[in-house]
Design a protein that fits this description.
Blueprint lengths: L4 H4 L6 H10 L11 H12 L1 H6 L14 H11 L3 E2 L7 E5 L1 H16 L4 E5 L5 H8 L3 E5 L7 H4 L5 E5 L12 H11 L4 E5 L12 E2 L7 E5 L12 E5 L15 H13 L4 H5 L1 H15 L5 E2 L5 E4 L7 H4 L2 E2 L6 E5 L1 H8 L7 H12 L4
Parallel strand pairs: 1-7, 3-4, 3-5, 5-6
Antiparallel strand pairs: 2-9, 8-9, 10-11, 11-13, 12-13
Length: 366
């Protein structure tokens, strides 16, 4: 019997849980944070009518074919303080509709080319990994990240490992990322790893992601989360080899979204916005934590999230937002409703008044 999409949704997406979390200023789903800077960059592009319209004119000249190249060149420079790799080793670059399109197509190619394919992730990872794997008829095995060395004994020959860094599990930079990649390269060279760098640009503190290991054939990027661009659908794939399923993306791409992402990277360095809004994140975590009875809730490395120890999950609602394997479980919440209301209530005209009243009624936020 097939399982409907609604049956696959996490428990925190159920109406009662979602309503209870939102009343406190949080959600279980990680939404993007639309900031004044997000809208200012878009307004600047739209206001420049001549440049805007010119992007779409005379397609028979094929001038649009190269319009994604500036996005990738800018990303390489923008991400350089964090992402360490030789750009020339990843010459095939494809614009995608956020990270999701790249993930799906890379999984589809892997399925078509592999005799006994299997997808591997750490427990609590980005929900899209197992969802896309299931849609493609791929087995998806979850592993305990706290025992990552055991992966070599459980992963099938030729398996494909997907991992986010910073991690979608808990919104933290996973300090064992480099060691894990090197360990698999040494013990299981048959296993490829594809990192998802969606949260690069969402972390205030300095850190580094190394992608130069030969067992990393490709990686995906997105500006859904660092720039509040979920509905702009802008991202990409860097690959060591040509990817036939993505070849047509040099034509079939969103020109305005690529220009928007490029404009924001030129305006704001990779640490700029998360550092600018870090205090707002902590204020939001304090308010949400007080409203939900979680004294220990605090901002994760990733700007959008608040996390707390697992013993903070004292209600059925809070148990729906527990993430990760049992040995490293955390309460993980998205703080974007509260943060948006604190940054500028005009950016949340429907939510901000209700949230302000809810906080006041709970005696939160003073």
């Amino acid at each position: 019997m097939s399982i409907s999409v609604n049956q696959q949704l996490p428990d925190y997406a159920a109406p009662d849980a979602k309503s209870a979390l939102l009343a406190a200023g949080a959600t279980g789903t990680i939404y993007s944070l639309v900031m004044p800077e997000s809208e200012a960059a878009l307004a600047a592009l739209v206001d420049d009518k001549a440049s805007l319209f010119d992007r779409y004119r005379e397609p028979w000249t094929q001038k649009q074919d190269a319009l994604h190249e500036a996005y990738f060149e800018t990303w390489i420079e923008w991400a350089a303080p964090i992402v360490r790799f030789a750009a020339e080793d990843f010459p095939f670059r494809y614009p995608t509709a956020g990270a999701s399109e790249g993930i799906f197509k890379l999984m589809a190619e892997y399925r078509a080319q592999t005799e006994a394919p299997s997808i591997h992730i750490f427990d609590g990872e980005y929900e899209g990994f197992p969802a896309y794997a299931e849609a493609l008829g791929l087995r998806c095995l979850r592993h305990d990240r706290a025992r990552w060395e055991d992966v070599v004994e459980r992963i099938e020959q030729g398996g494909l490992f997907w991992i986010s860094q910073p991690s979608a599990i808990d919104g933290q930079v996973w300090d064992q990322f480099d060691a894990f990649v090197a360990f698999l390269a040494n013990k299981r060279p048959d296993v490829a790893i594809i990192p998802d760098l969606t949260y690069v640009g969402s972390v205030a503190r300095a850190f580094e992601v190394a992608l130069d290991a030969t067992n990393i054939p490709a990686f995906v990027i997105s500006h859904s989360k660092p720039f509040g661009g979920y509905y702009h659908r802008v991202g990409g794939v860097f690959s060591r080899t040509e990817r036939p399923s993505l070849f047509g993306n040099k034509w079939f791409k969103n020109l305005l979204s690529l220009a928007w992402g490029t404009e924001l990277m030129r305006r704001h360095a990779v640490f700029d916005l998360p550092r600018r809004y870090r205090e707002v994140q902590e204020d939001a975590a304090r308010r949400v934590g007080a409203a939900l009875g979680i004294d220990a809730l605090h901002g994760a490395d990733v700007l959008l999230m608040g996390i707390a120890p697992p013993d903070s999950a004292t209600t059925d609602v809070l148990r729906t937002v527990l993430r990760g394997s049992p040995s490293e479980q955390v309460v993980r919440l998205c703080l974007t409703p509260a943060m948006t209301a604190l940054i500028d209530p005009a950016l949340a005209e429907q939510t901000a008044p209700r949230l302000a009243a809810s906080w006041q009624q709970m005696g939160v936020g003073r």
